[in-house]
Design brief:
- The chain folds into two domains: about 5-55, no CATH class; about 65-245, 3-Layer(aba) Sandwich (Rossmann fold), CATH 3.40.50.300.
- It is an alpha/beta fold.
- The longest helix has 28 residues, at about 35-60.
- The chain has eleven helices and five strands, in the order αααααβαβααβαβααβ.
- It has a five-stranded parallel sheet.
């Protein structure tokens, strides 16, 4: 029996598209289900449908540099050295619940950004919001927000993200306003929300990059003491990109 157009319209208005889909499948199937079994199947499908839609929205708003990067697509056989066993354990996601940070240190081309995006993707898979930023652009965004009066709203928005990726940490010298703004962002996250840093600078060089010893102490305390630190060694993977798969080439 085909579902009536009126019933389909009502289910659509109630935003229950999976109910329609499952009903049609049941009607075309040889299986005989009682009312409770049918409703249970419909509810399960609707729940999965909504979960997938939410994951898609989270991924879209995260604006990851490499949206296809996942913990499953990481190529551990690439010519680089880091604590791969420990990094794999991050796939369990406990560090996100604990508000722990991840710092990825290494030269250009070894895949830091890809690994960071895989961690952000993991966060979205766990139904938690994440976002990707290059530090120079975030600093500029914060600077503009002071001028147009949206600074407080921007801080609130960042504080609602379970994870933020700060890519290219240490590229440009920070001025007085930039270092204070970054401290505000990190203060809101300390101990409850996660931050992923990618950088070429070892942590013992961060004070010189930040520039103000007092603020540097505060920023380092909020980032490093709560972090898993991975030092990645190796040549740029781009040098051998002719022999790599499409996924492997997405590194920085």
């Amino acid at each position: 029996m085909t579902m009536s157009v009126h019933t389909q319209q009502q289910l659509s208005e109630l935003r229950l598209p999976a109910f329609i889909e499952v009903y049609e499948e049941i009607m075309q199937s040889d299986k005989t289900l009682n009312l409770e079994e049918a409703l249970s199947l419909m509810a399960q499908r609707e729940s999965l449908f909504r979960q997938n839609k939410r994951q898609q929205r989270l991924m879209k708003t995260a604006k990851l540099r490499y949206p296809a990067a996942t913990m499953e697509t990481i190529q551990y056989q690439l010519p680089r050295e880091f604590n791969q066993q420990q990094f794999r354990t991050l796939g369990h996601g406990e560090w996100l619940k604990q508000g722990r940070n991840v710092i990825l240190i290494g030269p250009t081309g070894v895949g830091k950004s890809y690994l960071a995006c895989a961690l952000a993707n993991l966060c979205c898979q766990r139904m938690m919001p994440a976002a990707y930023f290059r530090v120079p652009r975030l600093v500029e965004q914060l600077r503009i927000s002071h001028a147009d009066g949206s600074y407080a709203r921007l801080l609130d928005k960042l504080a609602k993200l379970q994870l933020i990726v700060l890519d290219d940490w240490g590229i440009d010298q920070l001025d007085r306003q930039a270092r204070r703004d970054l401290l505000e962002v990190l203060e809101d996250r300390c101990g409850r929300l996660s931050t992923v840093i990618t950088t070429q600078l070892p942590t013992d060089k961060w004070h010189d990059y930040i520039g103000d010893s007092t603020i540097a102490d505060a920023i380092c305390d909020r980032l490093i003491n709560q972090a898993y630190v991975f030092t990645i060694q190796g040549d740029s993977v781009r040098k051998s990109k002719k022999t790599l798969t499409h996924v492997d080439q997405q590194v920085s």
